[in-house]
Structure formats: C-alpha cells, structure tokens
Amino acid sequence: MNINIKLKNKKVLTYFLALTLVASPIMTYAEANIEVRPISAEIDAAVPISAEVTPVSEEETPNYIEFHGKITNVNSGEGRFSILAENDLENALDKLVSHLSDDVVILDEETMDSISMENLVEGMEVSIYYEKDTMMMLSYPPQLSPDVVIVRSDDVDLNIKIDKFGKELVSDDNSLKLNLNDEVELEDLKGNKIEKEDLANKDLIVFYGASTRSIPAQTTPKKVIAIKNHEVKTLHYFNLNGTRINLGNIMYKTDDGELMIPLREITEVLDFNVGWDQETKSVKIEKDDYTASLTIGKSEYQYYDMIIDLEVAPELIESTTYVPVSFIQNILVAGTQVTMDGVLEITKY
C-alpha cells in the first residue's frame, strides 16, 4: 500500500519525525566522528534507508534490503549494543551502524540457528537485513535498527532469501518458490517446529542450496524460519501492550482483503477523545495537543496540518465507524504487528 502525505506546514513534519525518532534507540547512540543532524534540519533529515541504497522505484525495491560487510567495531556500553559493519563498495553504502535488541533475529549461517548478540565480534562477515521502509539517521555512517543479522561463513555454500511468501510459497518478488519435503526444517522465531500451512502470508528466512533456472526459481530449502505474520485471523479481540482487549464491534476484511477496525473502541482504549459530526459525517480525534480528523467515504485523513492518503476510506456500518488498520500506525502513531497465530498486537508508546 502506498501512503501519500501532503504537507500544509513544514513545522509539522519536524514534530512527526521527532515522534518517530525519539522513541528509537538510534537517537541515544553516540559514536566518535559521527555527526548527527538535528531534527530541525531540512525535510530530508530522516528518510527510508532504501532511498540511500538503490535509486529504483518502490515497485522494484525488495521488501528486505541486504547490507553485507565485516564488523569493524562493537559498542556495548551503557546498556546498548550496536555494531559497525564496513565493505569496499565505491558506489553504494559502504558503512552501516546497526543497533541491536532482543527483537533482532541473529543467526549463524553454518548452523542456521540463533545466536546471541554477545557472540558478534570484530572481523566477522555479516549480512544485515532491514525492511525497505526502515527509518535511518542521516549521518555517516547511517544508523538503523535491522530486522535480521546473519553471520556468514566461507565454509558454507548457502543462499539466503528473506521475503514475504504467499499461500503457494512464492516470494513476494516472484523470484523463488519453495518445494517442501519431510527433511526441511520449519521453525518459528522461538525455535518451535511448525507445519507447512503455518508459512503462508508470512515473512520467511530461507536457507537453500541449488535452485532451478526458471521464473520463479524453485528450490527445496534446508531450513525455513517464519519471522513475521501479515494475516489477522482473530477478529473479535486484539492485544494492547500484551493485554487482551475484547471488541464489541468485531473487525472485518473488505473484498480486497483490507482489515477494517472499529475506530471509537480502539482510539478510546489509546486514551484519545472521539467526536462525531452527523451533518458532515466526519470524526475528530483529540488528545492534549494532538488532533486528527476523517470523513466517511474519503481516503484522505488529516493529521495535524498534514493530509495523509491511506488509499482506503472509512466506512460507517450500523452507526460504527471503521478505518483501515494502517490508521493505527500512520495517524495514531502507535505500533502494530500480527502474532504468529494471527492476533493483532497494538503497542502504545
């Protein structure tokens, strides 16, 4: 889904970026000889790192971008852990600071198993993967929080693919199809054994050897690890910071597969005030100095002085306003993810 943002006031963008970055461990990292540009800098102070790596259209950018390099510095001071990796590329990203936490998947290529961040040392060759919309600090070297780090080995001849795979186990970019047999190891993030049907519509880490010369290439992988789910299956409740919240008006999916959520129930749980204007069929959402609004049937939502097009309009069903699930992250500025068993998780910052 493409989200278009129209600015009415450039000062608002500064505030919006501050909300994004202040809560991130990136802002607390300090390294010698790194200049961090202030949040009051021009509009390009924080951009998706995919724009820095490869100048192609969004349709051509993979869901996960790989940076390959050698660890040249490990910083584990003051309760934080980060690595600096470097390579010799001249016309591409040659250095990257990665801030690691317990949410980052760290694997050893040779064993295909998880390792702790404390096992990372200078001199190791690593592949660092991050989603294309990951936010970065526009410093040199750039800094981000990756999704996956894999320690590479010269003694192993494996290919690694990280992408969303659909029901037919074809990657989102149509480059790889998985053919599974009983010998393929299938696991979730915790190392629990899972079944083939548990892989559909999830982001997968695939370790594989040879593949066919076809489109898509086909392979029988060595191991597959499911790391992220995209399909909400439970519609009558969600989790807020780990606590189950039952819904009086259940979520539903449109014919296009878009998940729609009951606006008032979710925003009020997040401590927002919601007002309804019957004449204009519009909703106003407020909390402290926060303000947002929407109109039934219009996909453009107002957030402060910005107009954000979520491409899906709110709907009114039996006196209940529903909005797309993307509203939570892009308008309410709360985190969302889907558990492996299909439950919507909302994180209130």
What is the CA-based Rg, rounded?
22 Å
* CATH classification, class level of the largest domain: Mainly Beta
Which fold does the CATH topology of the largest domain refer to? OB fold (Dihydrolipoamide Acetyltransferase, E2P)
Poorly predicted ranges: 7-47, 49-58
The proportion of residues in beta strands is: 35-45%
Oligomer: single chain
- How many beta strands in the DSSP annotation? 28
Q: Overall pLDDT, averaged?
A: 85
Q: Given the structure, what is the number of helices?
A: 4
Task: Describe what this molecule looks like in 3D.
The protein is mostly beta strands. Helix content is 8%, strand content 38%. It has helices spanning 10-22, 50-53, 263-269, 326-330; strands at 4-7, 64-75, 81-86, 95-100, 105-108, 113-114, 125-131, 143-144, 148-151, 159-165, 176-178, 185-187, 202-208, 217-219, 223-229, 237-240, 243-246, 252-253, 259-262, 273-277, 282-287, 290-295, 300-303, 306-309, 315-317, 320-324, 335-338, 344-347. Strands 6-5-9-7-2-3-4-8 form an 8-stranded mixed sheet, with no helix packed on it. Strands 1-24-23-22-21-20 form a 6-stranded antiparallel sheet, covered by helices on one side. Strand 3 and strand 4 form a beta hairpin. The longest helix is centred in the N-terminal third of the chain and has 13 residues, at 10-22. 24% of the residues are buried.
Briefly say what this structure is.
By secondary structure, this protein is mainly beta. The chain has 4 helices and 28 strands.
